[in-house]
Amino acid sequence: MDDLRIKRAPRIEAEIIVPGDKSISHRAVLIAALANGPCVLRGFSRSADCMNTVVAMRALGIMIEQPEPGVLIVHGQRRKLSAPKNEIDCGNSGTTMRLLAGILAGQNFSSRLVGDGSLSRRPMSRIIEPLRLMGANIEAEGDQDTAPLRITGAPLHGIKYTLPVASAQLKSALLFAGLFAKGKTTVEEPVPTRNHTELILNYFLVRTQKDNNGGISVFGDHVPESRDFSIPGDISSAAFWLVAAAAQPGGHLLVRQVGLNETRTGLLGVLVRMGAQVREAIEDVDQVEPRGTVEVTGAHLKATVIQGREIPRLIDELPILAVAGALANGTTIIRHAQELRVKETDRIAAIAHNLRSMGAQVVELDDGLEIHGRAPLHGARLSSFGDHRIAMAFAVAGMFAEGETVIQDVDCVATSYPGFEKMLSELANPKGIRTTTQVITSLAPSRSED
Ligand code: S3P
Q1: pTM for this model (two decimals)
Q2: What's the gap in Å between 320 CA and the centre of ligand 1?
Q3: Among 82, 133, 299, 317, which residue carries the largest CB count within 10 Å?
Q4: Domain boundaries along the sequence of the chain
């Protein structure tokens, strides 16, 4: 298990791209596998999580070629999957396990989904209960309705279901199950979550219906139309560098070809509220997922409150936003984020522990954090808690700390962002990285607070 050592970094002045979006990559390979022919997926995330989904679909009889890094050719079999010979290992990936469970519930064979220690502690009753209402035969072998999951394929029927938690994974599990269910499956969500599943279903010409309450319906028996698809960069990976640049007065970063789906860009509005200058230009919506360039110019940040409907739009960015809070003047408050307690680790506890170790004053709330900035951070020996986003958020914190920061057990970074360490060292030693000489002019005016 490797350690990562970080020293205070010089001001960022760079133009970068980030790897393909993890959430969209999972969905792309799943839908392509169900389609009526081969699909070429470009910009596919090489993260361990997404490779778990690829390996799982291969185990279900789908041929998937990888002619070059980031490119997959998925040979869709018109919704025909075959029984896996062994259990399917979802590794650390909640998205793999939950979305796949939706698909497997409606097959005519049995399967067993297992995960690593972290995934085996994460709540699965949220998918088990509604899938059972659809007729699924699904058992959790863990003590608290946790993985491994044993799924005996069964005929499903559509239901109308209101999500009790704001979870795109749950919504997507039900929509995928709905593709194999008799009749109409409708999912309503009290607070909107990322809509990648809905968008990719539309792109693959699967009929969906939207009602006035924001409910989304799918219908069984639809074969997705195979189409090539290109995946934009992951805004959740870009987030680490965007915050790093935003918290350095005069720091300047351009991220190109990054996904700018509104259900994912809550971070940008928060950075504006904190005093950074943020501009974004959507350059391409051809493939339903908006993508373009984000430009951030840094400032002395000021504290903000992050809560309510904003939370699902930046749920994965809260660890790095907590670091931004520690670097900002005033008290930053994060609330309504109790979901952080059931991510790859209890992120509320992990953030509080690590920020305190670096000298920040932090109050842990049941559903969030109160972070008293701006403390002079000092280097420390920190645990990643086996959680990729904790590891990366605190690597960025190390860029602002006096002395050396050591993050233990950083192998987990590959879960979402292989290449993170390389980018970190390039930004810390800017020779060789492409720097911006002039601000591009095509960007829309500065994003205002939202
Ligand atoms: C994801 C949804 C979010 C997010 C996770 C990926 C997805 O989880 O935290 O990293 O791809 O649907 P929830 O839907 O459980 O909130």
Answers
A1: 0.96
A2: 16
A3: 317
A4: 3-20+232-449, 22-219
**Alpha carbon distance, N-terminus to C-terminus of the chain:** 41
Which of 93, 95, 388 has the most ligand 1 atoms within 8 A of CB, as the residue to mutate?
95
Provide residues with CB under 6 Å of ligand 1.
23, 26, 95, 167-169, 172, 193-194, 315-316, 339
Structural contact between residues 357 and 384, judged by C-beta atoms closer than 8 angstroms = no
**CA 107 / ligand 1 centre spacing (Å):** 24
Evaluate whether 145 touches 124 at the Cβ level (below 8 Å).
Answer: yes
Residue 306 alpha carbon to ligand 1 centre in Å: 18
Q: Spell out the CATH class of 22-219.
A: alpha beta
Pairwise CA distance, residues 310 & 351, whole Å = 19
- Taking the centre of ligand 1 as the mean of its atom positions, its distance from the CA of residue 444, in whole angstroms, is 29
The CATH superfamily of 3-20+232-449 is Enolpyruvate transferase domain (3.65.10.10)
If you take atom 4 of ligand 1, which residue's CA is the nearest one? Answer: 316
Catalytic residue positions, numbered: 316
Atom of ligand 1 nearest to the CA of 167: 14
Would you write out the chain's pLDDT as a tens digit for each of its 450 residues? 789 999 999 999 999 999 999 999 999 999 999 999 999 999 999 999 999 999 999 999 999 999 999 999 999 999 999 999 999 999 999 999 999 999 999 999 999 999 999 999 999 999 999 999 999 999 999 999 999 999 999 999 999 999 999 999 999 999 999 999 999 999 999 999 999 999 999 999 999 999 988 899 999 988 999 999 999 999 999 999 999 999 999 999 999 999 999 999 999 999 999 999 999 999 987 789 999 999 999 999 999 999 999 999 999 999 999 999 999 999 999 999 999 999 999 999 999 999 999 999 999 999 999 999 998 999 999 999 999 999 999 999 999 999 999 999 999 999 999 999 999 999 987 764 555 544 444 455 456 544
What does the DSSP 8-state code read for residue 1?
-
Domain 3-20+232-449 identical in fold to domain 22-219: yes
The strands making up 13-17's β-sheet, listed across from edge to edge, are 13-17, 252-259, 291-297, 277-284
